[in-house]
Design goal:
four-stranded antiparallel β-sheet, alpha/beta, globular, 14 helices, eight-stranded mixed β-sheet
Length: 468
C-alpha cells in the first residue's frame, strides 16, 4: 500500500500563536498560506484533518474548515473526495493580499478617486465571501439545478426581512421581499407593474439620474418637485400635479443634496398617497452609512396604508458587481410584480443568493458594515480636510457616501467637473441633476471605493488647479 506523503510541520513542541485580533479563521488561513509559500508544506503534501488542526491551534472546528475553504478557493489547496485535503500541486505565486479598490492606471482605466457609485470590500470580507461561494460550488444544493422562485431564494428573503426589521424599522415578512438585480431592476419591475405610459410621476428635484432615466424611458410624465432642507415638498407637488400616480423619494438621505425628509412631510406624503390611490417609491440606497446619531427609520415602517414600496440594495454596502437588491412590496402589489418578474428574467442567481444568505446569517454582514463605516468616515474626514481652503462651500455630511461642494456663481460646474477629471479627480456636476427647478451649481464628490489617503491626495492635486 502506497504511503501518503505528509510534510506538515512538527508543532508538538511549540504551536504557533495566532493573532488575537480579527477572526481566527483568517489568522489560521494566513499562517497556513505562509507555510505553503515558504515551502514548509510542499506541493502534494496532505494536510491534517480539520479536527487535528483545530486541536493544534485551540480553535473551533468550524474555523479550521473555513480556513481550508479559503485555501482551496485561492488555489493553495485542493480537496480530494474520500482522501482529505492536500497542498495544491501548483501553488500560485501571489503578492500579499490587499484591500481591493478601483484604481485608474495606465494599464487599467477605471473610475477616478471622487467618483460616485464605488465601493470597496476589505480583504476580510472578500475572503469570507469567497469561501461561502466556494462552499456552494463544492457542495451544490439541488436548488442550483432547477428554476427557482421568481421572488428569490427563501432563505435569503428571510435574512433580508429580519435585517430590515431590526436595522431600518421596515414592517415586512419574507413573503413581501422580492430579490432583484439592484435598484435599477427594482424600479423597472415597479414601473411595469404599477404604472403605464403617460402617468404623471413626482420625482425629487434634483433627482438621482438613473431613477429619472428609468421613469422617462418608460414613458412617464415627470413632474419635478422642489427639495429643500426638509426634503421633497408635497404641497408643491400637489400644486403642480395633484393626481400623480406615484412619487419617487430618497427620504433618509436625498440624492444628491443629502437632506433628510422631515416627519411632517413623510406623513403628508403618505396621506396624499392614500387619498389619491398613489404609491410612494422609497429608495433607501445607503442607510448603512450613518456616522452620527441613531439610525433613521424607513418611511415604510410608518405606513399603515400599504402605500410605500421600499427599494434597497447591497451594491453600496458590499459591491455593485454582486448585483443584488430587493423590493419590499405592499401585499396588494405582490402577485402583479411577481408575474412581471416571471415573464422577464425568471429568478435571481441562486448561487450568489445562497452565499449572501449565509453571509447575513453568520454575522459577517454586521461585522463588515462596522468596518466599512469606519473606513468611509475616515475617507470623508480626509477629503473634507483636503478641500479646506479651496474656496468651495463644503458641509461635512453625517450620512452617506458623497458630499456636495458649492461653487461661486460665476463658475460652470460642468466645466469644473471636466477639468477635475483631467487632474485625476472624478467629481460630478450638480446642475444636470435638476429637472424643472432652476439649477444650483455645485459638485457631487464620492468618498467610497478608494483608500482614504489616495482620495485625499487626488483632491489635493485638484484643488491646486482650481482658480476660484
Amino acid at each position: 500500500m502506497k504511503k501518503v506523503r505528509t510534510n506538515f510541520p512538527d508543532w508538538s513542541a511549540s504551536v504557533p500563536v495566532l493573532p488575537k485580533a480579527g477572526p481566527r479563521r483568517l489568522a489560521l488561513y494566513r499562517e497556513l498560506r505562509r507555510l505553503i509559500e515558504a515551502g514548509s508544506m510542499p506541493p502534494g503534501s496532505k494536510l491534517p484533518t480539520t479536527r487535528d488542526l483545530a486541536a493544534r491551534f485551540g480553535l473551533s472546528r468550524g474555523a479550521a474548515v473555513a480556513a481550508y475553504e479559503m485555501l482551496i478557493a485561492d488555489g493553495f489547496a485542493e480537496a480530494r473526495v474520500g482522501a482529505g485535503t492536500y497542498v495544491a500541486n501548483e501553488v500560485p505565486v501571489l503578492a500579499e493580499p490587499v484591500t481591493p479598490v478601483l484604481r485608474n492606471t495606465a494599464e487599467e482605466a477605471g473610475p477616478l478617486p471622487g467618483a460616485l457609485g464605488c465601493s470597496a470590500a476589505d480583504e476580510r470580507t472578500i475572503q469570507v465571501f469567497r469561501s461561502l461561494l466556494n462552499r456552494h460550488l463544492m457542495q451544490p444544493s439541488s436548488r442550483h439545478f432547477h428554476y427557482n422562485e421568481p421572488a428569490g431564494d427563501r432563505e435569503l428573503r428571510e435574512e433580508v426581512a429580519a435585517y430590515l426589521r431590526a436595522a431600518r424599522g421596515v414592517n415586512c415578512s419574507a413573503d413581501q421581499v422580492v430579490m432583484t438585480s439592484g435598484t435599477q431592476q427594482a424600479l423597472d419591475l415597479v414601473i411595469r407593474s404599477v404604472l403605464k405610459p403617460g402617468d404623471p410621476v413626482w420625482i425629487e428635484d434634483p433627482c438621482y439620474p438613473m431613477a429619472r432615466f428609468a421613469f422617462s424611458a418608460a414613458g412617464m410624465r415627470l413632474v419635478g418637485v422642489t427639495v429643500d432642507e426638509e426634503g421633497i415638498d408635497p404641497e408643491k407637488g400637489i400644486a403642480r400635479e395633484p393626481r400623480a400616480r406615484a412619487v419617487y423619494v430618497s427620504p433618509s438621505h436625498q440624492f444628491p443634496l443629502g437632506v433628510t425628509l422631515s416627519m411632517r412631510r413623510r406623513l403628508a406624503l403618505i396621506e396624499w398617497a392614500k387619498r389619491n390611490d398613489a404609491f410612494i417609491i422609497e429608495d433607501d440606497y445607503d442607510s448603512e452609512y450613518r456616522f452620527a446619531g441613531p439610525p433613521l427609520s424607513s418611511m415604510q415602517g410608518i405606513d399603515a396604508e400599504g402605500r410605500v414600496i421600499y427599494v434597497g440594495t447591497f451594491s453600496k454596502v458590499l459591491m455593485p458587481g454582486l448585483r443584488i437588491g430587493y423590493l419590499v412590496l405592499p401585499w396588494s402589489l405582490r402577485d402583479t410584480v411577481l408575474d412581471v418578474r416571471r415573464r422577464t428574467d425568471r429568478f435571481p442567481s441562486t448561487l450568489a443568493e445562497g452565499a449572501l444568505a449565509e453571509f447575513l446569517r453568520e454575522g459577517h454582514f454586521a461585522a463588515h458594515v462596522k468596518r466599512a463605516r469606519r473606513r468611509v468616515k475616515r475617507a470623508r474626514d480626509l477629503l473634507v480636510e483636503a478641500l479646506d481652503g479651496s474656496g468651495l462651500e463644503v458641509t461635512t455630511p453625517e450620512q452617506g457616501l458623497h458630499l456636495v461642494a458649492g461653487l461661486p456663481a460665476d463658475m460652470v460646474d460642468t466645466d469644473v467637473a471636466t477639468e477635475a477629471a483631467r487632474a485625476g479627480f472624478g467629481v460630478r456636476a450638480l446642475s444636470p441633476m435638476y429637472v424643472d427647478v432652476p439649477p444650483r451649481r455645485g459638485l457631487v464628490i464620492g468618498f467610497s471605493g478608494f483608500p482614504a489617503e489616495e482620495l485625499a491626495r487626488a483632491a489635493g492635486r485638484w484643488v491646486k488647479t482650481l482658480r476660484l
